[in-house]
Amino acid sequence: MNPFSKVITLAGSNATNLVPVYTPGKVLWLAAHEITHLQGEGNYTYIYTRQGKRYIVSKTLKNVQEILCADLLRVHKSYVVNPEYIAARLDADMLLMSCGHKVPIARRRIREVQERISIGYLAVG
Q1: 43-101, pLDDT tens digit by residue?
Q2: What are the strands, taking DSSP E only, across 1-125?
Q3: Domain count of the chain?
Q4: What is the CATH classification number for the domain harbouring 91?
């Protein structure tokens, strides 16, 4: 049996929604539904998962968002969030994610974020 058959099967099933994360000794394939948010820093992107783990990949935020092809929301120059994991809206310019991280909203994107998120179920304040 090929030791890579599971990885090949996993990647082949829906490769457009998986991003490879290289960790010491192995490659993890993260699906879009496991990611709470992304934080970009230059040519690197931090990927935060629903399990509370943080991974780094050597791709820009835009590239990772394109690889995932998911319904992710760009809220800031350096942040992309998965709307499924937004716990609350703290202020007009701040989101609280289900993992406990606070994510800023750019002033010019506040209206767009309001339109994409159902304000009715998010607590303000």
Answers
A1: 999 999 999 999 999 999 999 999 998 889 999 999 999 999 999 889 889 999 999 99
A2: 18-23, 26-31, 35-41, 44-49, 54-57, 73-76, 79-81, 86-91, 94-97, 102-104
A3: 1
A4: 2.40.50.1020
